[in-house]
Every structure is written in structure tokens, then in C-alpha cells.
Design brief:
Order of helices and strands: HHHHHEHHEEHEEEHEEEEHEEHHHHHH
Distance between the termini: 43 Å
Number of strands: 12
């Protein structure tokens, strides 16, 4: 760092560590789990991928360039001032180590040991993909926004930094804001191949899930099903997951994932979708667009308010749609347990472009044009424009 000493950061780390240790509740806390619990996934990120070796050489500038975020609430005020003044060397990998020591890198938990600040272990949390920051200090540095998809996070590029991987090519195809949860699973020992070639999907929001019932694009199960699938098989947590529909069975004891799912679910359900910013849509056009949504556009037949999905229409199982029904890509669906798609709940659409599971619709107008052609609807250009303004309000 420039003009902000490592020793000053170290003193702050000790104070914060004591505060965190004395503030932990006796039971499971969903917010703490979401933000800071690795579920023991160091077995993947440290023991198998050896990411601690790669990250020790990564500068903050590089980390920010692949979409990692820094939580400003974890930084001492003097460091925030130094960053704003351009007095922190963001090209120095040692600054990355200090940020990890502060527990300031969103979704990444690193254990730093010894007088030489060696990065001993690395693990990840739910917040890595499903949180971002408000950029209030600098681009990529600010207050946490839990539940917001990290649309600049390039998980594939990060994984490809692993010195243990021999074939990095599939990961380098993912790009920012995407992840392939169907490519392989980790069972605590090694990778289990699931589907090839890789077919990444966009990282979805984790907010606005209250009343939705099913989180995945393909409606494989309720929210905690997906949390378990990802926590164990994708994050590499030390736990157990089984689904005979996809031929996957992982058993690890002790199970560090399953007991925490109820608390994690409650925190996720508490995350509300962010309202559209003032002035971001035309109110008169949006009112006309709502009429199109409920009428000529036939949107409301599947996107049923207030959750704007019909997935809970069935009494005991999710109500799903075949890919051909909506002109959706059949490949990703074929990698799932259902082979079909859930009607996506429409929430905070202004915030998380691109759209559809594969990000093939870059704008809301692209979404409208897709359905206008596939169904077909025969909407006028005025109706399309009005419908887009309404979708911006959701």
C-alpha cells in the first residue's frame, strides 16, 4: 500500500476479529451463513484446486477485473480514504492478502498465517455469486448488496487460475456473469463429470424469492434443494446431497451443509427485490404496457402476479413448460432433472440483464421480440415499447 501501512491494517484486523468472534449468535444465523460460511469447501478450493497459490499472486486490480468485490464496511475509515485518494497500490498482491485478512473480499474467505502473511487456505461462500456492492468507494468497492447477482463475476476465469487444472478451456468459455452448475460436481475427492460440452447459464438473483417456491431455471426442486446441490456439489462444501433423477449421490460426514439450510433459506426469503430507480421508466408508457402485459401480449397467462410465475400452479409438483413451448434452448433443460423450464418470476428486471437462462436476450426489447415471434403475438412497435416500460417497473 502507499501511505497506508500494513501494520495499521493488521491492528484493525485484530480488533475486527475480536468483534466478530464475540458477536456470533448461539444458533445458525442465515445472514452469517450466506456471507461467511464456506461449509468446509476449502477441500475443493484449497486442497484440490490450490487456489491459495494463485490468489497469493493476484493484485486487487486483477481481482476487480474478474468481478470480485470488496466490502467497504470491512475496511477501516483511513483505508477507505486512502483508496479514494488513489494512495493504495492496487497492483500489489500483498494488498489482496490484507483485504482477505480483513475478510473484505465478498464471498471469499482466506486464512492468512505467520509473520510473512502466507495465504494458507481459501474457501468461498454463497455471496461470491449472489452479492455485489454499490461502488460507493470505487468501482467494485462499496457496501454489500446481498441477493444481487454478480454480473461481472467471471467464475470461469477465476477457476482457470488454478495451478492444478490441466484443461482450463471449458472454464474460459463461460464469461462474466455466467456459471455452469451442470458441467460437473465435486464429491469431496474429485470431480464427477455431468455434461459436456459446458453450457453456462446466467447467475440469477437471490432476492425476491418469497412465495416463488422453486429457484432453478428448470424447477428441479425448492430453494433449499438448490442450496444443497450448489453448497455440496458446486461450492465443494463438506456435506451430503442425493438426487437419483440426475444420478448424483454425495455422502460426506459430518454434514456441514444440511443443518444450515433452514436458516439460509429464511435469510434469502427476507431479501426483497430492489425497486426500479426513480426516472428509469416512462410512467404513462408503463401504464399502457401493463394493459399489453395482461392483454395482447398474453404475458400474464404464465407470469401470474404477484410472483409473476405459474410454477406453483400444480398441487404437489412444479408446473413447467417444454422448451419448444417458449422457444427456449433445449440443451440446458436436457441437463436438468426435469427437462423443462419454470416460468421465470419477474422481479427487478431493470437490474439483472441479460435475460433468459443463457443470457441470449441482451435487453428487455429482445425478450419481447422473442416472444412476439415465437408465440406469435403480432404486437405493434408501440405495444412492444410500452411493454418494455412496464417490465422495467417490476
Amino acid at each position: 500500500m502507499k501511505q497506508f501501512t500494513i501494520s495499521a491494517v493488521a491492528a484493525y484486523v485484530l480488533a475486527m476479529s475480536f468483534a466478530i468472534a464475540t458477536a456470533q449468535p448461539g444458533g445458525f444465523d442465515g445472514k452469517q451463513i450466506f456471507r461467511f460460511d464456506t461449509f468446509g469447501d476449502e477441500q475443493l478450493w484449497t486442497d484440490t484446486l490450490q487456489m491459495q497459490k494463485a490468489i497469493a499472486q493476484v493484485s486487487p486490480a486483477t481481482a476487480l477485473s474478474v468481478g470480485l468485490k470488496v466490502d467497504s464496511d470491512a475496511l477501516p475509515p483511513a483505508l477507505i480514504d486512502a483508496i479514494k485518494a488513489g494512495k493504495v497500490d492496487l497492483n500489489d498482491p500483498q494488498v489482496t492478502i490484507q483485504l482477505l485478512k480483513l475478510n473484505a473480499v465478498v464471498g471469499v474467505i482466506g486464512k492468512v498465517v505467520g509473520a510473512k502473511n502466507n495465504l494458507a487456505t481459501v474457501g468461498v461462500t454463497c455471496a461470491l455469486c449472489h452479492s455485489t456492492v454499490d461502488n460507493s468507494v470505487a468501482p467494485g468497492i462499496g457496501k454489500r448488496l446481498d441477493g444481487w447477482p454478480n454480473l461481472t463475476l467471471n467464475v470461469g476465469a477465476i477457476v482457470a487460475l488454478s495451478p492444478a487444472l490441466t484443461d482450463k478451456s471449458p472454464y474460459n468459455t463461460w464469461g462474466p456473469g455466467k456459471y455452469d452448475a451442470r458441467f460437473h460436481a465435486f464429491n469431496g475427492i474429485g470431480f464427477i463429470p455431468l455434461h459436456s460440452p459446458s453450457a453456462p447459464s446466467v447467475i440469477p438473483p437471490a432476492y425476491g424469492l418469497q412465495g416463488v417456491g422453486f429457484e432453478t431455471f428448470t424447477g428441479d426442486g425448492p430453494i433449499s434443494y438448490w442450496n444443497s446441490y450448489v453448497g455440496v456439489g458446486q461450492m465443494g462444501g463438506h456435506g451430503s446431497f442425493s438426487d437419483p433423477r440426475i444420478g448424483l449421490n454425495i455422502t460426506q460426514t459430518p454434514d456441514l451443509v444440511t443443518p444450515k439450510l433452514p436458516a439460509l433459506l429464511q435469510y434469502q426469503l427476507s431479501l426483497r427485490a430492489p425497486a426500479a430507480p426513480a426516472g428509469s421508466f416512462n410512467r404513462a408508457a408503463a401504464r399502457r404496457g401493463e394493459q399489453v402485459f395482461n392483454g395482447a401480449g398474453r404475458c400474464a397467462s404464465c407470469h401470474i402476479p404477484p410472483t409473476y410465475t405459474d410454477v406453483l400452479s400444480g398441487p404437489t409438483v412444479p408446473f413447467l413448460h417444454a422448451p419448444a413451448e417458449t422457444g427456449a434452448d433445449p440443451v440446458y433443460a436436457s441437463h436438468s432433472a426435469t427437462g423443462m423450464y419454470r416460468t421465470t418470476p419477474l422481479r427487478a428486471l431493470w437490474q439483472h440483464a441479460p435475460y433468459f437462462h443463457d443470457g441470449s436476450a441482451k435487453t428487455l426489447l429482445d425478450v419481447v421480440n422473442h416472444y412476439d415471434a415465437v408465440l406469435p403475438l403480432g404486437l405493434t412497435e408501440r405495444q412492444k415499447a410500452d411493454l418494455v416500460e412496464f417490465l422495467k417497473t417490476l
